[in-house]
Every structure is written in structure tokens, then in C-alpha cells.
Amino acid sequence: MSIAEFRLASCLLLMFALTLPLPLSADEQKPTIDETHSQKMKAGLVLFKDHVREILVEKCLECHGGKSTKADFDLATRENLLESGYVGKNADDSYLLELIKHTAEPHMPFKAPRLSETEIDHIEKWLDLGAPFDKPLVDGKTTTAKTSTVTDADREFWSFRPLQVVSPPASKGKQETDRNAIDAFVRKRLAENELDLLPPADKAVLIRRLSFDLLGLPPTPQQVAEFVADPDPNAYEKLVERLLDSPRYGERWARHWMDVARFAESHGYEQDYNRPHAYHYRDFLVQALNDDMPYDQFVRWQIAGDEFAPENPLAMMATGFLGAGAFPTQLTEQEFESARYDELDDIIGTIGTAFLGLTVGCARCHDHKFDPISARDYYQLAATFATTIRSEIELPRDPQTGLPAGPVVKPSKDEKANTAKKTAVPKVKVQVTSEGYPHMKHHADGRGFPHFYPEVHYLKRGDANQKDGVADAGYLDVLKRNGKGDDYWTVTPPEDSQQSFRRTGIANWLTDTTNGAGHLAARVIVNRLWHHHFGRGIVSTPSDFGFQGGRPSHPELLDWLAVDLVHHGWKLKRLHKLIVMSQTYRQQTAPDEATAKELALRTSLFGRWSPRRLEAEAIRDGMLAVSGLLDETPFGPGTLNQNMKRRSIYFFIKRSQLIPTMMLFDWPEHLVGIGRRSTTTVAPQALAFLNSPQCRQYAEGLANRTDGLETTAAIEKVYQLLFSREPTMEEAEISQQFLTMQAELHNEANPQKAQRLALVDWCQMMLSTNEFLYLQ
Q1: Does 425 lie in the same domain as 342?
Q2: How far apart are CA 432 and CA 393, in angstroms?
Q3: Which domain holds residue 240?
Q4: Any domain includes 21
Q5: Which stretches of the chain drop beneath a pLDDT of 70?
Q6: Which residue, of 477, 502, 527, is where some domain finishes?
Q7: What pTM, to 2 d.p., does this model score?
Q8: Beta strands in 447-502 (DSSP E)
Q9: How many CB atoms lie within 10 A of CB 2?
């Protein structure tokens, strides 16, 4: 071969070599992303066909894409499953896995046993493999269900069921301590754990417990002495009745309801302008509770008092409930409509939690994630209040009390013509929430804010810019029974009415125990009373009786009390008496040498009376009472002055300027309704007792009540005022030592007032003790 031929062959060989693929590195030998995904999906499909499909169909589909679609979770198709948000990029990122593993609530399957570990393992691996489907779980299903369908099974959830008429459990022989049916129900649950009710507390302890519970104030030493010395077997019952008849009762329990009603006297948000005539709603609560207004009427008047009894000032005042929420008064034109929907949302959400113990507001943007409440239900409820607005109107005023007094009489044409000849009737301005009256003025008026729109629309994702048809007034499907439709509760307004009477319809539905929501309303209010008497409700979540709420510890007792309430005219004072007359309520706080396990069981089953700290109002009012400084003047406008001597319920509640000393002890922020206050323990609480000028005033007032008494007698009187008991010998000696030592310290700087200053110091210390701040 010539050199030229060799060179030509070499070039051809090199060109051929360059066309061959190069050897792959280790990394380059891996499959592509698409190939990996395909392999995982193939493995996932095998797992789905062999195991997962059967699990989903048998354990999950009925409530999630089959007969109904709960919690906006539809797994009938892969597309709907992924759109639900319950499935993430892998198993660790999937909420679905947390629910079936019971590491998140509600535990799933909801009404069935937990999946086996093998079943959970199959689903976990399937999720990691991409959650593939071979075909929909429901034939012909291709799109997400838009609205949940309420099923008979939904209505069988414990809180949606009709009230069960149950008989108290039979006791094994007559128990002397079985005061009423409550004790029989509680004894039964305790007996299941080999426990029994504890003996009653001492009479001095009971009167203090009762007085703070029913009145929010301590008993006087004279009241304690009379009760302890009273040999009458009915002495306790007489005490209960006297306390329930006190005008201080309404002030105590109105404050509890104000938490639920998110009551405040300003608009909130940045500007937080005042609502100077909103306090009449608070006064309605005090008066209605003192009068023992039936609870069903109490509910109806807060929703539609202006429609039920327009001639009654108290009914008009009651409607302040609807308009008590926060509202932004500085709005641009772009915010008008969304602000109105937010206002309706506040009304609907508060009605749901306050009266029904349901988080209805969660259904604004989509069907409720957990409860059988659809977005359709939500907007039908909102349509009930389409034209309802805040107004300020004048009502007749009682010249002696200055309060609204009836009847409200609309003058005839002839009377209007002769108005000038008549003596003017004194008037008082009241904030109401009604229809047909001039709107309550605020700073958005100048830009044309309409205050309401004549129609309420269904909104996609709760967005006012995504309207999806007009909503008609209606009620929650899950709380309609016996084939009754919305028209069953609908009321036709009188011809001359300026109100729509849609609110009368919802009020009737809310209190209808046979066909409507009344059975749930009865359970909720019974539980609220129980919660405030024992520190914890039979249902531990007083404003959530839905799937995510607690379950009743004593379901039969709850229903027995609710039935009893309804059958006796919805009278709350009778229910109070029934509860506090029970041996369950009268128990001691703890047995001697009880183990931690026993205490926990007794606490959860009401086998003891659990000590608890007083709320902010009771602490402050109690200090005013024992110091002799309490001003018992009821009703009327409130104040922001912390030096006020009236009860704490008469503070003006300005959302941006809440009373600091009240906030220290967990006063609510008054933005949304709350059923259960937090109880925190922080250093500033102790510092307030040591350093606040108000606490020093209370200590000085307490010291003044011992004027003219020898030291020993002064110590005894303070103990009686604060703790409803006399000091032990050791306590008396320690107090004497403190007074002597403290007087010596003051003697250097102020010898003439040394004894007095020492006494005030001691009184301030005693006001700071746990025994004064806690109920036993």
C-alpha cells in the first residue's frame, strides 16, 4: 500500500470512528426524568389495581366523590384528587396520608376503624409513585363535584341528630347525695372508672363559689356567716334563688355573652371611629338576663327583634347583635362591594358560632372542608341579611333611668299634624341593625358607599368580582328535617312594613326544635352554661360542635339538659339552678392523696370541682367590692377611664384602645366571637398587683374597712372579706409579723403613718394571693 493510499484509508477510518457513539459515563447511563416517571407510574398502577383501588372504594369513596363530596375532597378521578390539595409531590407532602395515619385531624376514615398498617403502607407507596389511576373510581365521572349533598348519614352526626329523650340512669339504691338527674349521669361515667362523686365542699367555700359564679362578686362576711349558721336543710337552695334574683346576675352573665357576640363600641381597623350608641345592646343583655327572658326569644330578638316586637325598645336594642362586628369605614370605591360581603360574612360567621356552634363562615370560598355545609348554604344565609344595615334611631326614654322605655308608638297622620300641640316625649338615641331606617353615617359615605346591595350573589372563591348567580334566602340543609323546605319558616311581611321579614324566617328556623336548628341551639346554650359553671363544657369546644370540635363527655346528660330546657320554656335561670343544686357542682376540689391519674380522670368526668382562676372582670370587680369602692350604678354609657369604680362590664370597648389591666388577664380582643377564653400566667400580672395605682387604691380602701379595729380583728376582717373564712393561727401570726416588720421600715421615713402604710402594704399583698384570684 502506497503512502497516499494509507493516508486515505486512515482518514476514512477516522471519519467512521467519529460517527460512533462515545462510551457513556456512570451518570450518563441513568434513565431520563421522563423514563423514571414512566417507570414509577407503571409501578404505581400495579399497586393501584392490586390494592389501593379497593381501599379507596370501600373505605373512602362514599363521602369523597361517591354519594357526596365532603370537605371539598373528591377522589373519584385522579384529576379531582390532585386538584383537592390533599395530595402533594410525594407521600411526605400529602395531607391525605396524615389523615389516615391519624397524625392530623379529623382522623380518617371518619366513621370507621383506622386503616390497617398494611393498607396505609400501600397508600403511602402509591402516593410516592405519583398516585396514578387506571380509570375513575366512579363510572362516567370526569369533573369535580361543585356542591356537597347532605346525606342521611350526615344528619346522624351526634350534634345534628334530634334531641334524644333519655331517662337518668338508675342508681344502686337511694343515694343521699343524688341531688338531681345530673348526679345520676355523672355517677354512671365515674362508676365505669371505679370512682364516685366527692363529698360536698364546706358551706363557706360553696357560698364564695356560687357568688362569683352567678354574680361575679364575692359574698360579704355577713352573708357568709348567715349561710354557714343557717340550720335550714333548704338554706343552700334559698341562697341560689337569692343570687339568681340579684340584678348583679345579669351583669355577670351578659359579659359572658358579649364574648360570644364580639361586642365592641367602635368600628375597628386603623381609624376605629366610635359607635357612641352601641352600649344599648349591652344593656339589653343585662336586662333580658335579669328578667329571665326565654332563650328562644333571646335568640329571635337578637336576629329580628325589630320585626318581632317593633314597639318594644328592648327588642330594638337586641338587634345590636348583628351590627356589633368590626367594619372598615375608610374605603375606596373598589372596596365597597367586597367590604359589604365581608360585613355579611361577619354576621353569618357569628350567628353560626354563637347559636349553632358551627363554623359556617368556612363555607364562603368553598364547601366546608369538614362539616356538611355547602357554599350554597352559606350564600343563602347571607341573602337573609341582604338589606340589613346599622342605623341610629330615637326611642322613648324613661325620665328616671334614662334608658329606652316603651312602647314605641308610630304616630298616625293626625297625630303628626298635631305634634306641635303635644308635650315632647323624651328620646334616647339607640344603635340598631334593621332595614328601612337611615344608615349609620361613617367616613365612606362621602365616596358613595351604598351600605347594602339589594341582592347577594354566589361568589366563586368568595371573590366579589366572580359572581355566579343570585342567592335566595335560605338555611342550612343539614339542619332541616322532616321534609321541610325553606318556605316552611318564611314569613310574609305586613303590607306597611319597611322590613323584609327574612330575618324572622331565620330566627324561627334557629329556634325550631322539631324541624329546624333548635335542637342544636339548645345543646349549644346548655353547654355554654355548663362551661362557665365548671370551667369546661360537656363539649370542650363551646363554639364548635362540628366534625373538628370535641365530642361530648356525657352525651346523654347533654341531651337530657337540652330537652329539660326546652320543655320548661327555655328558662335559663331554672337551668342554672338545676346545675348548681347538683352534688356534681357542690363537690370538693380533690380527694386526699389522689394520684395524678385519678385527678385527671375526675377532671375529665366532672368527678371533682376543678379550681380555676377568675376572669379579668371578676378579679377587678372583686377587688372593688372588698375594698368598699364598688359603684353599683347599672346601665348607660361606658368609659375608658381605668379609675372607673363601676363594674368592668361598663368599660367602653374601643377596639384600638382596650383597657390594659383587663388585657393582662386575657380580656378578649373583641374582633370575633369566642366561646372560651385563654388563661395565661405571665410576670406582668404580678407586677400589676405590685405597682398599679388602681391596685393601691383598692388596698387603701380595704384598709379603710378595718378602721377602729385592733390588729388581730383587722386581720380577721380582711380574711373574711377576701376569702370568706377566718385565718388560721399560723396565718394570723405571719400577718402580725409582717405588719410589725413593715411598720418598722416605714417608721424611718414617715413615723406618723407607719402603722397605716404597713396595713395598706399587707392588704395589697393579700389582694395578690392565689386564694383571692382562684375559685375553689
Answers
A1: yes
A2: 7
A3: 149-245+517-612
A4: no
A5: 1-35, 72, 111, 140-148, 171-179, 401-402, 406-425
A6: 502
A7: 0.82
A8: 457-459, 467-470
A9: 7
